Amino acid sequence: MKFFIDTANLNQIREANELGILDGVTTNPSLMAKEGISGEQAVMNHYKTICEMVDGDISAEVISTDFEGMVAEGKKLAAIHENIVVKVPLIKDGIKAIKWFSENGIRTNCTLIFSAGQAILAAKAGATYVSPFIGRIDDSGWDGIELIHQLSNIFSIQGFKTEILAASIRNPNHIIKCAEAGADVCTCPLDSILGLLKHPLTDIGLAKFLEDAKKFA
Ligand code: G3P
């Protein structure tokens, strides 16, 4: 399973990248706004900076909701760097745009996916990635991980090449469950990635080893 970080914060991207396990970055308009990035040029520059920091796929989201607007925006985003993946919302014009992008050599990440039917449509249109929102599904009283299981099964039966990119991750256990359920990629906040490191027995064990090491140092 590939690890992406889900943020537009450069310090967090750097910290995850320095771990040596980072395969890419996903952003969205809310994450860009959180970093105070505004204006088309500032947004484009920010994506360029991220592309220069991380050697992997970088999702950059369109904000248009009509086919022509999405295609125009996506072309500009894709021109920033070869690693840019154009992120498109799962709406009717989004599906048309994904089809257009896939026929014109531009890779896409179909976002805001909450059901298997939506993911099948995006895969049929040629999306490179589909992003089911695990945490938000859980928040609404459904089971986000169950959707990953379902998509993994369907994509395997149907031979879809589209990768399942589990998004809206809220904790380390989500990452483990996504790996178990067959997600191809998990995009996570830094805290959830670092949470995978933690176990009290590791801390207790290391303290004991270091204490004992003093006996022969
Ligand atoms: O990038 C999309 C997704 O990961 C958003 O997560 O926590 O806002 O539901 P969240």
Structure notes:
This protein is α/β, with parallel strands linked by helices and 217 residues long. 53% of the residues lie in helices and 17% in strands. The protein contains 11 helices and 8 strands. The chain has helices at 10-18, 29-34, 40-53, 67-78, 92-103, 116-125, 134-139, 144-158, 172-181, 190-195, 200-213; strands at residues 2-6, 24-26, 57-61, 84-89, 108-113, 129-132, 163-166, 185-188. An 8-stranded parallel barrel has the order 1-2-3-4-5-6-7-8, surrounded by 7 helices. The N and C termini lie far apart (40 Å). The model has no long low-confidence stretch (mean pLDDT 97). Bound molecules: SN-glycerol-3-phosphate.
Class of secondary structure makeup: alpha/beta
Order of helices and strands: EHEHHEHEHEHEHHEHEHH
Which sheet architecture does the biggest sheet show? 8 strands, parallel, barrel
β-strand amount: 15-25%
Poorly predicted spans:
none
Helix content: 40-55%
Radius of gyration: 19 Å
The gross shape turns out to be globular
**How far is it from the N-terminal to the C-terminal residue, by CA?**
40 Å
Bound molecule kinds, no repeats: SN-glycerol-3-phosphate
What is the number of beta strands? 8
Strand order of the largest sheet: 1-2-3-4-5-6-7-8
Number of helices: 11
Mean pLDDT: 97
